[in-house]
Amino acid sequence: MGLIVPKFQSTAVARNRLRRRLTELWRRQVQQLQGGRDLLIRARPEAYRATFQELALELQRFAAGTFAPAGPPPAGAGE
């Protein structure tokens, strides 16, 4: 997992806090789903204002959509 946390006019303390939060959420929610795939997370400016729970929800939504197991093809696919 790669993590990019740009400055966005924030202090080093704020960047490190955001980096620690995202790393912990990745470890709890995404790491096992990720498998052997690479993942790059780039924080947006609003991530600095988000609570831990808000970040957790956003990462959970991302992981569910990205790493969801492939289901059967839709009816009519491949015709």
Structure notes:
The protein is mainly alpha-helical and 79 residues long. The protein has one domain (2-66). Helix content is 48%, strand content 8%. It has helices spanning 12-34, 52-66, and strands at 2-4, 40-42. A two-stranded parallel ribbon has the order 1-2. Helix 1 (12-34) links the parallel strand 1 (2-4) and strand 2 (40-42). Helix 1 runs parallel beside helix 2. It is elongated. The mean pLDDT is 88.
Supply database-style keywords.
79 residues, mainly alpha, two-stranded parallel ribbon, 2 helices, 2 strands
Mean pLDDT: 88
Number of strands: 2
Q: Specify the biggest β-sheet.
A: 2 strands, parallel
In the sheet with the most strands, the strands line up as 1-2
What count of structural domains?
A: 1
Give the overall silhouette: elongated
Oligomeric state = single chain
- What is the helix/strand order? EHEH
Helix/strand-derived class? mainly alpha
Number of helices: 2
Write the layout of secondary structure elements.
Blueprint lengths: L1 E3 L7 H23 L5 E3 L9 H15 L13
Parallel strand pairs: 1-2
Helix pairs in contact: 1-2
How would you summarize what this structure contains?
Helices cover 48% and strands 8% of the residues. The protein has 79 residues and is mainly α.
